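Quick one - first record:
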Amino acid sequence: MRPTDDTRGDPPTETIELGGLSLWSRGIIALSVAVLATYAIWHLAMVFFFVAPSNTVSEEYRSTVRGYMYPEFEQNWKLFAPNPLQRNVAVHARVEIDGQVTDWVDLTAMDIDAIDHHPAPSHADQNLLRRAWDFYTGAHDEEGEPVGMRGELSESYIRRIALLRLDESGVDVRDASRLQLRESLTRVPAPSWRTEDFDTATAYEELAWWNVTRDDLPGGGE
């Protein structure tokens, strides 16, 4: 008995080869491949020069490399040895309005709430406050005094961000006369398989009060 061909009744399968495409279609495909390949090479080059030790090329094009990497592709070693982060840091703020001091508002918690369960959280929620606080602490000495113009700039920057976040939280900052920030530090507990007994109580460090100027207010006080 001869085997039967069960496919005789099926409709013919049409295959499209690249050579069968129009010149316009082939041009679009070739251009797309070229653009993607060029971007991939550019991206790998930027990442390489960002993480590589300082050299002539990375120093000459430092602004270009940093401009491309920040903030989307920022990389650092804070998650790795020898000095991984061991504390949770949060920034709180309060203001004085007509002689009355408001309650502390956890600005970091606001960012976390905006990030959690969000499929595409904004970079402002992820990085703005955190980077501003890193900028502030890195531009002040152990006594809390600003180091040069960077220190003064960092104070102005963090003040404006704090007042903006307070305004978003419902605090009417338009009549605020003074602003105070504090940092909360909570030690990350040791994993269950370690025997260390760390003190995980939250410690607070308050900054001095700052006078609020019209330029510090959201929208310039408009």
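second record:
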Amino acid sequence: MQPYTEGFAEKSLTPHKAAVKVDGHSYEAKVGPGQGYVLDKGPEGESRYNITQVLGGKNIFYFLTPLERGRLQTLPVDVKQKLWFDAAASGVRHQGDRPVSWRHSGYTFNSACYACHVSQYKQNYDLATDTYGTTWSEPGINCESCHGPAAEHIRVCAEAPPGIVPEDLRIKRGGRDFTHEQNNATCSTRHAKSIALSTSFEPGDDFWDHYDLVTMEHPDFYPDGRDLGENYTYNTWLLSPCVKAGELDCTHCHTSSGRFRQKKNPTRPAPLVTKRGSITWKPTAGISRGAIPLVA
């Protein structure tokens, strides 16, 4: 996630030449110099929605605009591989059999999109007034998301003599210092379709103390349990025999930043170090991504 700027638009976007027509309205993104808004032409006249934030990266960008009562809403036109498209229509799987309005709560960043895109997020929803006072510390996934609060870490490092690494770095290291369950819980806050029960989760905490897991009956999952492209893989991950046995965590195959450890040789079985020694695992053949039970 990043703020929308003219520099971003010049580098990453192409001119929007043909308006997207939805329910009697036409939407056209104006992303040239001095612009940065979506123009809405409808029966009631014209409206402008300023683009303030950008979600996405490699292949797709979604744009956010501030609406009434503190809502950040996904705009109706977005970009996939530099082609503009109808964002709400592409999300039909999330809201039933028919597309809903881009103003629907399913496209409200404050309650639907935040977990994967910002760090130290506070929703600050007020039920009495139906308003959001949402805040976050940084866009993207920052160090504290995996290592916990950094104030003490910064202090001891700043006070250490030049060239000396403090013996106690005052930080949660994760990885080998965590149990498999703790590592999985830390990653799952971004990879589980869930309902937040608190805003106080820190790395090392129990996932179930802070979140309620949405099950596979939800329309964001295929009938066989695979997620529909939103990276909600925690459900099927929990079905792995190795995970159930407490012998496997996410960082066995991935770095903490998500890179695949076996990228150069993805078909080679990887050693799995457990409390009982070293075993080898491989994915069960013929099963699609997201529905991969692992066998030792």
